[in-house]
Backbone:
């Protein structure tokens, strides 16, 4: 259920795999995405189970309506009856509030400054990485008192640069913005490495404590991959502070 987990000075980072839930084919098993066609009751049960396995209150998890942009919301609690905004990053200075990202090939980016008590989460697909969603999230955290040199960054399972094939013109467009994302597939065609691009952006911002997941979602049958399966579930990545 929880494929990877890390704790640094009271900052918690967790990434799910696809197992241990109740969703049926083609969303089996632990689909945490509510907008992919799965039974809403199954998604609720999965979200409750995932939160329970992490020891967090499912009612204290903040989700996003992700749209591949670079907008950031500052949050101090769940949305409740309010509409979930169309943003691709959220930040908070509220301890115990878990921020969540949904992905199935895009890069989930989890950030925390344990000293300032500020956390952030970003959804970085190719368009969001190019648009600068990760720098935007870091800037929003800085406005709450975070310092880049203290930020701990963890990126989760995502399609790797050896598998993310794109047209040559698209690769050129992406590399013009972020050269580190220029890549080539294992079979010799143009590709984009979004994770490499994200980490290059974080490095330029002064975020030194960074760990990248070794898991490629397209290659791993333990993880959902939109590029591989099209109709499929979504993984979740969580960050919270004590």
Residues:
């Amino acid at each position: 259920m929880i494929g990877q987990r890390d704790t640094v000075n009271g900052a918690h980072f967790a990434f799910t795999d696809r197992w241990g839930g109740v969703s049926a084919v083609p969303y089996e098993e632990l689909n945490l995405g509510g907008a992919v066609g799965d039974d809403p009751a199954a998604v609720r049960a999965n979200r409750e189970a995932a939160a329970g396995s992490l020891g967090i209150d499912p009612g204290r998890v903040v989700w996003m309506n992700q749209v591949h942009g670079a907008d950031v919301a500052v949050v101090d609690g769940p949305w409740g009856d309010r509409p979930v905004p169309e943003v691709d990053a959220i930040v908070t200075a509220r301890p115990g509030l878990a921020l969540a990202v949904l992905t199935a090939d895009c890069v989930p980016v989890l950030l925390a400054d344990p000293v300032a008590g500020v956390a952030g989460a970003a959804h970085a697909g190719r368009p969001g990485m190019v648009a600068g969603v990760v720098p935007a999230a870091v800037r929003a955290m800085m406005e709450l008192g975070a310092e880049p040199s203290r930020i701990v960054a963890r990126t989760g399972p995502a399609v790797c640069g050896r598998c993310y094939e794109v047209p040559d013109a698209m690769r050129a467009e992406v590399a013009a913005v972020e050269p580190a994302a220029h890549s080539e597939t294992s079979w010799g065609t143009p590709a984009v490495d979004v994770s490499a691009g994200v980490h290059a952006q974080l490095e330029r911002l002064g975020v030194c404590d960074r760990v990248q997941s070794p898991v490629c979602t397209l290659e791993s049958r333990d993880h959902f991959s939109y590029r591989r399966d099209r109709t499929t579930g979504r993984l979740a990545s969580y960050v919270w502070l004590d």
About this structure: The CA atoms of residues 89 and 239 lie 12 Å apart. The helical segments are 40-54, 126-131, 133-143, 168-177, 194-205, 226-229. The first helix runs from residue 40 to 54.
